[in-house]
Amino acid sequence: MKLTTMTQVTIDGVMQGNGGASDEDRRNGFERGGWALGKGDNETHAFINQTYQRADAFLLGRRTYELFAGSWGSWTVQDVPGWEPVARALNTRPKYVASSTLADPAWSGTTVLSDDLVTAVADLKAKPGGELQVHGSGTLTRWLLENGLVDEMTLIVIPVILGQGARLFPETGPDLALDLVESRVDSKGVTIQVYRPAGRPQYATA
User: Fold this and answer.
1) CA of 73: how far to CAs of 17, 23, 48, 80, 117, in Å?
2) What is the pLDDT of residues 79-102, one digit of tens each?
3) What is the pLDDT of residue 38?
4) Model pTM?
5) Domain 2-13+42-180: what homologous superfamily?
6) 20 to 30 A Cα–Cα from 33, which one of 1, 84, 125, 129?
7) What is the residue-averaged pLDDT of the chain?
8) What is the mean predicted confidence (pLDDT) over 8-35?
9) What are the contacts of 36-42 at 24+ separation with CB within 8 A?
């Protein structure tokens, strides 16, 4: 399977608290949640639905898994008009959680990956199929990129600057060159950028 990631971020790179509830994630005094709600147009909604439909399995970090399990895991397709493909995919396809502390996941179809994550993810990628998708899960996404395990990365960039919150990429960290595969902008100014990692960047010399 191809490992792909999809992350909603602001112009200043924040990914914290993008969901519908302003108090979804108040870690470290964050007060500006819900910034992505209602921002994309119908074409962006269709893109997200189509992405989830392509998933053969999901790989999630512990926190994102618990947020998804508490929402999507308790909803039927009738509960989320317009987002039926997302609900159907998340509730019917295998879910893998990278966690050393989650012991007894209640969401049906969940497997916990607690030991030797590099080998576990490589084994999943070696399985036949289309996509092993990562949604949200910032800490996990950074780790996967650092370990060369991401095949394709999608950023959905919301036109807002928050000025606070956890960012997808740290202030200091490994460098990575990217090849742009696809780019689009919707009628509300939301941009979708699809990249493939391309090794280390080349830096100009004197």
Assistant:
1) 19, 20, 18, 12, 24
2) 899 999 999 999 999 999 999 889
3) 86
4) 0.92
5) Dihydrofolate Reductase, subunit A (3.40.430.10)
6) 84
7) 92
8) 77
9) 36/8, 36/156, 36/158, 39/158, 39/159, 39/160, 39/188, 39/190, 40/156, 40/186, 40/188, 40/190, 41/186, 41/187, 41/188, 41/190
